[in-house]
Specification:
Helix content of chain A: 55-70%
CATH architecture of the largest domain in chain B: Up-down Bundle
Distance between the termini of chain B: 13 Å
Helix content of chain B: 55-70%
Structural class of chain A: mainly alpha
CATH superfamily of the largest domain in chain B: AhpD-like
Oligomer: heterodimer
CATH topology of the largest domain in chain B: AhpD-like
Radius of gyration of chain B: 18 Å
CATH class of the largest domain in chain B: Mainly Alpha
Order of helices and strands of chain B: HHHHHHHHH
Number of strands of chain B: 0
Order of helices and strands of chain A: HHHHHHHHHH
Chain lengths: 219, 208
């Protein structure tokens, strides 16, 4: 343990020294690292990707970016996930305001720049109060929620952090939601966990020139 | 994991077993004779594709039949046709089931993983929350990538690069989607408190 720690420190020191020696010669050291998945344009898509790309462009607020950029690398899977996302967005049995709230709760947990960028405006447009969105962003339990919003907050938070839903919260869910709505709410949570994983793995960010919702150094 | 944590896990398992009788009632399985037209169609499509009756997470999912079909369709690819192959995908599934303490996923997939070529001592280490001591190069790449994603909500540059070099861009996307898809199924099963057979091996509960 001690030996390997020392080795890491020495290596880091050597790297700094090497970097300092090269700094004068190579300004490119300051260039951002290469993207894990270089952005694609419609013209670059192959025949397997193109039909999916065309559907994405009709509904996406981030063009072929965000989760779509990595998803296009696996077009069969990408199409099926797109179909599920499309259903959840337009045909879910859960009201849009609660749908979008669940997505934001997951997006906050994953500190997902893209999920927050795309869905915070949709949540507010769907009727979630701007204060609720701001408090969630600040990692507080929102102080002034409707009863159904408080249920969604507790249900989704318990499920995604404790990995289970308490009997008390499930009983509240059964009072306010049908069984189909409980399944859809769980599916929305799980599907946006999947999207958050894909975004995090691919290190996707907001479109060029747009402000990052979570600033460097902020939790 | 130390002995104390393991003992706590066993206690938690015992406590859970006693509550499963009530637990099953959370999202009751719909009897076939009560299916709506949409549910009947979704169940028939499931059987046509999978050649087996509806089981596991698809039972609670049938309360939302179109969602069940759309999720199943992702699974048709991710479980059976993903670009990382059916041995490593079973390893990904076990790591995901362990993270969610999902006994039913474990009950179904631990034997499938062993049959597909993952050694039993590897599955036992994963069940206990240990990194398996001896892994093939491919298994190590998968374990590092998936564990970092689940624990850190990110994948480090070295782990990402190794995985991308070995499996390609499509491979790392598929591997991530398998983690996500089995997380979604685990969430359904955990919400429903879906029961496993009484004699099934249950995952020790690890403090979260």
């Amino acid at each position: 343990m001690t030996v390997s720690t020392t080795f890491v420190r020495l290596s880091a020191a050597a790297a700094v020294a090497l970097g300092a020696a090269q700094a004068g010669a190579a300004d490119s050291a300051a260039a951002p690292p290469a993207a894990r998945f270089p952005a694609l344009t419609m013209e670059q898509l192959n025949p397997y990707q193109k039909p999916l790309g065309e559907q994405i462009m009709k509904v996406s607020s981030v063009g072929l970016g965000g989760p779509y950029n990595p998803l296009l690398r696996s077009p069969i899977m990408g199409q099926r996930m797109f179909d599920l996302l499309y259903y959840l967005r337009w045909n879910s049995s859960v009201p849009l305001r609660l749908n979008e709230f669940a997505i934001l709760i997951i997006g906050r947990q994953w500190r997902s720049q893209v999920e927050w960028y795309a869905h915070a405006p949709l949540a507010i447009r769907a009727g979630l109060s701007a204060d609720t969105v701001a408090e969630l962003k600040a990692q507080k339990r929102p102080s002034n929620m409707q009863p159904d919003e408080a249920l969604v907050y507790d249900f989704v938070t318990e499920l995604s952090t404790a990995h289970k839903v308490s009997d008390a919260t499930f009983a509240r869910a059964r009072q306010l939601l049908s069984e189909q709505q409980i399944v859809d709410l769980t599916t929305i949570s799980g599907t946006y966990v999947t999207v958050a994983m894909i975004l995090a793995m691919a290190e996707e960010s907001v479109p060029a020139g747009k402000e990052l919702p979570f600033k460097a150094g902020e939790p | 994991m130390n002995f104390y944590a393991f003992a706590v896990g066993l206690l938690a398992c015992t406590a859970m077993t006693t509550s499963t009788a009530i637990a099953q009632d959370r999202l009751p399985t719909i009897p076939a004779e009560q299916y709506s037209a949409e549910q009947a169609q979704a169940a028939a499509a499931f059987e046509a594709e999978r050649k087996v009756p509806l089981s596991g997470p698809f039972k609670p999912l049938l309360h939302s039949p179109q969602v069940m079909t759309l999720a199943r369709s992702m699974g048709d690819y991710l479980r059976f046709k993903s670009s990382i192959g059916n041995t490593l995908s079973e390893l990904v599934i076990l790591l995901t089931a362990r993270e969610w303490s999902q006994d039913y996923e474990w009950f179904i997939h631990q034997p499938l993983a062993v049959k597909a070529g993952i050694r039993a001592d590897i599955t036992e280490a994963i069940a206990q929350g240990r990194r398996p001591a001896s892994l093939s190069s491919d298994e190590a790449i998968v374990c590092d990538f998936v564990s970092e994603l689940l624990k850190n909500k990110s994948v480090s540059d070295p782990s990402f690069e190794r995985a991308k070099q070995r499996f390609g861009g499509q491979g790392v996307v598929d591997m991530t989607a398998i983690v996500g898809y089995y997380s979604l199924l685990a969430m359904q099963l955990n919400v429903a408190q879906f029961a496993v057979p009484a004699d099934a091996n249950k995952l020790p509960r690890l403090p979260r």
